[in-house]
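Issue 218. Parser rejects a valid record. Input:
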Amino acid sequence: MAPIIVVLLTVALLGFGHVLGWGTALAGLFLAAPGRTIPTPQVATAPIPESLSLETERAQLQLEISQLKEELLLLQQSLSGQNHFAQLSQDYQLASAPVLYRDPTRVIPSFIIHLGSQQGVRVGQPVLGQVSVIGRVSAVWPGRARVDLLSKPGVAFGALVQNSRALGIVESNAGQLELSFLAKGTSVNSGDAIVTSGVPGYTPAGLPLGIVETVSDSGESLTLQVTLMPLENPWTLSAVQVVLMPPVDGDGGTLSEELSGGRDRQ
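Output the parser choked on:
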């Protein structure tokens, strides 16, 4: 009799539970075998991919390596330039001059320096920064002078590829320093040092101008397209060095206006 009562109660509870939505829970309660428990569902949690963390760390390391390589290159160039100028100072006189004024907007590529004709400064003389040529004297007064930077249109220097001795001209084109007039087939490669050639004679030979950045022989032009990387940023300089050149015969103590690009001389 007892088993019949249990069965009837079970059927009744299942029916009642089905109405209330308890069917699954009640069936598990009454039909589960003795001594066994219903396992609790486990929700799997996905761990943070280790590859994502490694990729981030790798990108940071690559950035640091790139920055260190750039700093090393600038240091090597700086040391090379300093060694060169140490040799240069034995042959030519260098006069240090503080920068009095520069355009804070960097629109006008010229400086006013605290050195002038009374100290032997003349129009056309090259001007150096810490390690390289940055421009040329374009106007002179008794105690002042104006320096036009290499980035100014019309400022140019006869140049030489130090490795192959190929001749060209360094000047700015739309703000980019370029080495022009190198015929296709000329030996010039990225990383080559470019120095002044000394031609036609109003600038000393061997002054650093820049490092070759890119070389291209595409297009119908008969010459190579060579861009240069400057050795320093002239806008960060607080002082410059003027290469005091001797007067040119017949020029009245100054270089010619044609070579200087300046008319307001005194």
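Fixed in the parser; the record now loads. The two ends are 132 Å apart (CA to CA).
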